Amino acid sequence: MPGYVMDPHGGPENGTVRAYLLHKAKPHLPPWLGWAGTGLVGALGHWRWPDNAAAGVGLTLASVTLTGVTWWAGKNTSQQRRLHSAVTVACGSAWVTAACLAGPTAGPVDDLYLMGGPAVALSWNIRMGLRHNTEGTPGSSDGGLLEKVGLARAQIGAAKVEPNRVTAPLALQPGEQTNDDVTKALAKIASALDLPKNAIRYTPDPESERRGNLVIVPEDMLAEVLEWEGPSNLGGSIAEPLVLGRYDDGSLLVMWLPGDPDEGRNSTHGLIAGQSGSGKGDAALNLLTEILSRRDVIVWFSDPKAFQDFAPLRAGLDWAVEGGSQTEVMVAAVETVIPARTRWLGAHGYRQWVPEAAEVQNDPAHSCSTDGSACGCAGMPFLVTWFEEAANTLRNLGDSAFTGIAQEARSAGVSLIVSLQRPSFDQMSTSTRASLPSVIALGCDPRDEGFSLPETVIDAGAHPGAWANRRPGYCYVVSPGIDEDRYPSPARTQRFTIRAVPVMEQLAAWAQANGAVADPITAGAASSVAGRAYTGRPTPDKDVQPVAPLRVVRDEEDDMHDTGPLIDPEDTDIDPEAELPEPEEGDDAPIFGEEEGRKPKPEEARRLFATALAEFEDAGQMIVGPKDFMDWCDRNNLSRPWVSARLKEAAIEGRLEPTNATGRWRIVPTPRAA
Predict the structure, then answer these.
(1) Residue 499 pLDDT more than 70?
(2) Which residues is 386 bridged to in the sheet?
(3) CA 284 to CA 275: how far, in whole Å?
(4) Which pLDDT tens digit goes with each residue over 245-275?
(5) How many angstroms separate the CA atoms of 118 and 42, rounded?
(6) What is the C-alpha separation between 653 and 637, in angstroms, rounded?
(7) For 382, what's the count of Cα atoms within 13 Å in the CB-facing half-sphere?
(8) pLDDT higher than threshold 70 for residue 571
(9) What average pLDDT does range 392-412 have in this prediction?
């Protein structure tokens, strides 16, 4: 009786009044049938066990047991329903026990049956009427979904329905459920709704441990590939949003690099992480093209892969290097530039970089002049320092190579972008990773999710490990300025195809003609470390290296053509059948282990070594070590053992500075006449 429900599909079989009344009465009959059945059981029991002490004991135990079972079975229902059911069963079983032993008409037994039975039946009729009230209850709108997934008695409020997105506030049972229970149940909710796991997200209320928003995105709008067609805001400021793609509900995926004091948004550094084949290159191109299309930013870019993906944009970069010692110089230059830029911003009254700092300083409020007038100093554009395939750089310089930059650069108007496949602790120091608050997390191994995304975002439903490299471009973006409830929302970057190459080349040409150039402070600090290795971005008047044309891959048939004998030209006259010559004097002399070349006197050695350093500096190679002098020693017929001694002497004299890598030295540029 306590568990009866109304048949929602019932209805009158014909249009008569009798059928209509019978249809309406059906849902209310079970309690009355239970009342009648209880009387019948009591009468039969008295006929079987009148004045039987043993039967009395058994009936009493059965009554207590049945009441306890009812209470236990109702633990997943509401407190009121559980109590109502237990009281009903207790009253019914107690009356049956009394009727069986004393008789259904003895004493007050029959009066209790005639008065109490209808009262109990009516109480269930009233409860059913209230339960099916058209107004409903706050927690009845989920159709039993929350009960199925182990969140019984949690209440779903009025849902906000948007195109392909439903957001419903969720209130959990006080003292019994927490937000962690919801995050653990997300997979079950997805199963109940027949949706993928990443289509269900939960954003806890930061001010409550039992409230939050449940977000459901029923359709994956990211399945359609969106090709890149060009920058979103050509000529705008770097402080304006950078468009990278779209979310699964169709809204734009954007992020910011500089901070905004009016919005309370901090400047940020970024990490682009994703396994091979996850679309990391396209994600980087989306971000880089947006940056280069802005008027008040310059980019320093390191790519050990020789700009395989970024060649069309290389002409628009202020400084581009291809890894190795050139990247070591760039890292050292960034470390030197940061305090110089910070001093300039502080002297001009800027607590952080804002777009006004990139303009000529004609405002007395931002003047370094002591007399209160406008100083007219050249503006300082925002600086993005980008290290592509950073695992290579970290192996050469150590896992803490970027730690100082990441911790100090934001206040200097410098943003650090690090791109690598697996940002694990064995490749990047935890201090550096903690200083990269923004991340574009693409598909990865499920075991690596914690290296890319904060734990709270993963708990809220973000799982890049579910994609791996099967869905290129799918990503999660965590960055200042983005609503936190968007962090666990999947997005997809735009795809770059061969059709995008001419547009990227035009963008690089636009950046040359219209983009910012390095300010004197930044350029001077970089040159003080890099010397001629830093030249700044080439202008349209200078010769810009063209992008290498694409070459058609030859067919396999072309490889089968006869190209002549596959032997070295110098061996063409050797007869393979001829006998080897007899041994001659000197053939057994050792060719290794003997020192070659002359040993110059100390004065000559210092002069020659200074000449060598000048040659390296003129060539733009500012990081050197013993191995770099091997060819130079051979050309000058000099022995190699004295190179290490000369390196130490030059370091003492201030001509060299040690780097983070053992056995590598940075050349300190010598002053040159203008």
Answers:
(1) yes
(2) 301, 417
(3) 13
(4) 999 888 899 999 999 998 889 999 999 999 9
(5) 16
(6) 25
(7) 28
(8) no
(9) 85
User: For the whole model, what pTM was predicted?
Assistant: 0.64
Residue in the block written with tokens 């008789």 = 103
Tokens describing residue 409: 């650069």
Bridge-based pairing of strands 665-667 and 656-658 is antiparallel
Q: Which residue type sits at 628?
A: D
Domains 145-216 and 598-674 share a fold: no
Q: Give the pLDDT confidence score for residue 174 in this predicted structure.
A: 86
- The C-alpha atoms of residue 417 and residue 436 are separated, in whole angstroms, by 8
Cα 160 to Cα 434: distance, rounded to the nearest angstrom: 35
- DSSP letter assigned to residue 482: S
CATH for 145-216 is 3.30.70
Which CATH architecture does the domain made up of 242-359+374-533 adopt?
3-Layer(aba) Sandwich (3.40)
Residue-level pLDDT at 372:
82
Instruction: Answer yes or no: is pLDDT of 417 > 90.
Output: yes
From first CA to last CA, the distance across the chain in angstroms is 100
Segment 450-486, tens digit of pLDDT: 888 999 899 888 889 888 888 999 999 999 999 988 9
**For position 557, what pLDDT does the model report?**
40
Q: What are phi and psi of 623, to 5 degrees?
A: -115, 125
* 492, 246 Cβ separation under 8 angstroms: yes
> d(Cα 377, Cα 362) in Å, to the nearest integer?
8
Neighbours of 362 (CB within 10 A): 12
Do 72 and 2 form a contact (C-beta atoms < 8 A)? Answer: no
Q: What is the DSSP string of 276-306?
A: TTSSHHHHHHHHHHHHHTSTTEEEEEE-TTT
**CA 384 to chain centroid:** 20
| Nearest-angstrom CA–CA distance, 637 and 550 | 43
Contact 344, 522 (CB under 8 A): no
Q: Is 132's pLDDT higher than 50?
A: yes
Range 169-187 average pLDDT? 87
| Beta pairing partners, 216 | 166, 200
Q: Looking at the predicted structure, is the pLDDT value of residue 236 above 80?
A: yes
Cβ atoms of 633 and 643 within 8 Å: the answer is yes
Query: pLDDT of 11-29, one tens digit each?
Result: 544 557 777 777 777 777 7
Residues 6+ apart with CB under 8 A from 529: 329, 332, 333, 336, 622, 666, 669
What CATH number belongs to 598-674?
Answer: 1.10.10
| Residue ranges covered by each domain of the chain | 17-131, 145-216, 242-359+374-533, 598-674
DSSP E strand boundaries for 153-217: 155-156, 160-162, 165-171, 200-204, 211-216
Of the CA atoms within 13 Å of residue 111, those in its CB half-sphere come to 3
Angle (CA) 376-379-383 rounded to 5° is 165
Q: What is d(CA 212, CA 170) in angstroms, rounded to the nearest whole number?
A: 5
Looking at residue 599, its pLDDT comes to: 62
CB-based burial label for 600 (10 Å; 0-12, 13-18, 19+): middle
Residue with tokens 């066990």: 49
Structure-token pair, residue 237 = 């400021």
CA angle 491, 198, 172 (to 5 degrees): 120
Mean pLDDT of the chain: 80
Residue 7 in 3-state DSSP? coil
C-alpha separations of 135 from 132, 139, 374 in Å: 8, 12, 69
